[in-house]
Amino acid sequence: MSTPAPLPRTPAEITPDWLEARLREAGLLPDQSRVEGLAFAPVDLVGVNGDVFRLLPSYGGARGPASLIAKFPASAPAARGVAAFQRWYEREVRAYRELNRDGHLPMPRCYFAALGEDDHFLLLLEDLGRREAGDQLVGCDPARAKLVVRTIARVHARWWDAPALERELSWLPLTTVGLDHARPVQGAFARAWDAIGPSLSAPKGFAALAARAVSRYPDLLAEAASPPLTVIHGDYRLDNLFFDVPDPADGAERVTAIDWQFTARCRGAYDVAYFVALNLSTEERRAAEPALLDGYLETLTASGVTAYDAAALRRDYALSVQLAFATFVIGAAGHQPSERMRAVHSLGLERLAAAMVDTG
After folding, report:
1. What is the band of 48 on the pLDDT scale with cuts at 50, 70, 90?
2. Domain 132-359 is in which class?
3. Cα 191 to Cα 51, 161, 177, 329, 331, distances in angstroms
4. Which partner from 61, 196, 203, 296 sits 20 to 30 angstroms from 251, CA to CA?
């Protein structure tokens, strides 16, 4: 996709002419149609590290899309600073441009993706507003959890130990935070745990596990960054998932994932542990975990991944629970944009603490 200049920095800077040109480039606007007007409204997506708006074009002649999603950098300076440090915006733009060229990944359709100066970016995406949004606080039943896990297994199988990870996808960091950031992030993890650890209600034996996770954090990252590697989503939880039934004839549900800013090269079990440990209650996880891990492995095998067994998966799963815990500790100790996000972090830490004890 070409990058026109100047790149709009706010929805108010998106003119009808600019949008018309982008829609025409994307093949979404017939030659005889024009964008004659444009309205927009903010979209409240919890935890998304950016500002998201719904664009509502009006047309002359044949119609184009009734609505689109425009995603910009976060307006809060602190959030943008972290995003620049971790290259979140570059990762998401390149994920839409380079990971989903054939349209087979569980991502919204992307009509425009550009990265400008000073880490500015703009995405124009398919509007998923009519689909059912996941809710991390509500959770999901085991049948839907099975669907979510099998969906990401197919994504992982596509790049499992693939030469492209080094040749074409070396721009993806190793692990969600990057191995080169291991020490600074370990410092942030330690400070965050010192701040919130005393107030966390956790099961017996957890304090020692948490202290060990802090002290061994760079080693945990290094292990997660060793083969077999694949492409992971990196923030695979219900708040970033949408569900629909595209073909009512067979009733099969489909998952679409948004917010690909944490995408990375890593052990695939990271996405599995992140989803299972965070989005099921502790009781539900304990009951469903064996079947979900078996389903993940079965899907990998059916997709051609044969040199990976149940023992390796369970070890990687336990490792990934600890890394997910680090992510949520740092998030919980930082600025909370809403009371709901505060609740997401609090519940997530409670569930991850139990999962860490259960996995040893």
Report:
1. low
2. alpha beta
3. 28, 35, 17, 10, 12
4. 296
CATH of 11-126, one of 3.40.50.300, 3.40.50.2300, 3.30.200.20, 1.10.10.200: 3.30.200.20
First-residue to last-residue Cα distance in the chain: 47
Per-residue tokens: 221: 């990252």
- Helix residue ranges, H only, the chain: 16-25, 77-86, 88-94, 142-159, 164-167, 182-196, 206-215, 217-224, 269-279, 282-302, 310-333, 339-359
| pLDDT tens profile 68-110 | 999 999 887 777 788 888 899 999 999 999 998 887 899 999 9
d(CA 88, CA 86): 5
Which of 266, 260, 271 has the alpha carbon at shortest distance from 299? 271
Domain ranges in the chain are 11-126, 132-359
What is residue 159's predicted lDDT score, i.e. its pLDDT?
A: 96
- Residue 278 near residue 136, CB atoms below 8 Å: yes
Cβ contact 332:345 at 8 Å: yes
pTM summary value:
0.94
292-344 pLDDT per residue, tens:
999 999 999 999 999 999 999 999 999 999 999 999 999 999 877 788 989 99
- DSSP calls for 323-343: HHHHHHHHHHHS--SSHHHHH
Strand order in the sheet with 241-247: 132-133, 241-247, 252-257
> What is residue 7's DSSP assignment?
P
Report the largest interatomic distance among the alpha carbons of the chain, rounded to a whole angstrom. 68
Distance CA 310, CA 316 (A): 10
Instruction: Give per-residue pLDDT as tens, 115-144.
Output: 988 889 999 999 998 999 999 999 999 999
Model confidence at 1, pLDDT cuts 50, 70, 90, reads very low
Q: How far apart are CA 351 and CA 259, in angstroms?
A: 22
